[in-house]
């Protein structure tokens, strides 16, 4: 697809939640384009001043009340299930504690008693500039993981745009989000709450691997 149009749209989805959001966006955009075309056509039509001296038009008023409300009901029907689907914690295979620090992330795979820090990696030979980390989060493909987020100093925000994930990381408070990654590969995100001088140097890198590879990786620790 043309690069221009890629910039106008969302990122490619890398989680089920983002896939639903993209689908919803497509449907709503289609509806809006059709409405725009319809309204433009109505404006372009010649006004023959048929109702110039009438004070009410019951039929027309009923139409312009019911038609928009039907559209709104359709939009609600499409969006409400997705809203609640994102908040549900259903079948988590494991939980992971994410801790925001000035200025790095700490990840704790609680079920496996394994934790590590994740710092930004400086530019060497072939790194993505300012978003590459030394240790990255590894997630199993197509398995729900419960993220438990908290901070140890100031408010940070753990963000993964391609997974429809943005959660503030607040000291003294625990937030939970569950995520189901559905594409093998690497995704990048950044801290999204201004947290101090090195706010822009605490990126997030997530690698999605198959369950078998994940088990082989976690076995080592
Ligand atoms: Cu931060």
Question: How would you describe the overall organization of this protein?
Answer:
- The chain has four helices and ten strands; from the N terminus they run αααββββββββββα.
- With 221 residues, it is of the alpha+beta class.
- A hairpin with a 2-residue loop joins strand 1 and strand 2 (104-109).
- The two termini are 43 Å apart.
- 19% of the residues are buried.
- The model has no long low-confidence stretch (mean pLDDT 88).
- The protein binds copper (II) ion.
- Residues 100, 156, 191, 193, 195, 199, 202 line the site of copper (II) ion.
SSE succession: HHHEEEEEEEEEEH
Report the β-strand fraction as a percent range.
25-35%
So, the CATH homologous superfamily of the largest domain? Cupredoxins -  blue copper proteins
- From the spread of the alpha carbons, the general shape counts as elongated
How far apart the termini lie comes to 43 Å
- The largest sheet has its strands arranged as 3-2-1-5-8
Question: Any idea what the CATH architecture of the largest domain is?
Answer: Sandwich
- Ions, cofactors and other bound molecules: copper (II) ion
Roughly what percent helix? 25-40%
Number of domains: 2
Report the oligomer.
single chain
Structural class: alpha+beta
Instruction: Catalogue the unreliable spans.
Output: none
């Amino acid at each position: 697809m043309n690069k221009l149009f890629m910039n106008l749209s969302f990122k490619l989805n890398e989680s089920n939640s983002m896939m639903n959001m993209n689908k919803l966006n497509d449907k709503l955009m289609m509806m809006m384009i059709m409405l725009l075309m319809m309204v433009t056509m109505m404006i372009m039509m010649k006004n023959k001043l048929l109702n110039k001296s009438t004070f009410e038009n019951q039929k027309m008023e009923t139409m312009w009340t019911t038609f928009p409300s039907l559209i709104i009901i359709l939009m609600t029907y499409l969006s409400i299930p997705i809203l609640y689907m994102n908040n549900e914690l259903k079948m988590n295979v494991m939980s992971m504690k994410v801790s925001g620090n000035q200025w790095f992330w700490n990840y704790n795979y609680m079920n496996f008693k394994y934790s590590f820090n994740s710092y930004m990696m400086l530019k060497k030979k072939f790194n993505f500039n300012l978003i590459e980390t030394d240790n990255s989060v590894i997630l199993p493909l197509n398995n729900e993981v419960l993220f438990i987020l908290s901070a140890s100093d100031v408010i940070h925000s753990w963000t993964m745009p391609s997974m429809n994930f943005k959660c503030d990381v607040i000291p003294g408070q625990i937030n939970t989000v569950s995520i189901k990654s559905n594409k093998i590969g690497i995704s990048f995100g950044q801290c999204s709450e201004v947290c101090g001088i090195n706010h822009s140097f605490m990126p997030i890198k997530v690698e999605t691997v198959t369950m078998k590879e994940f088990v082989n990786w976690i076995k080592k620790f």
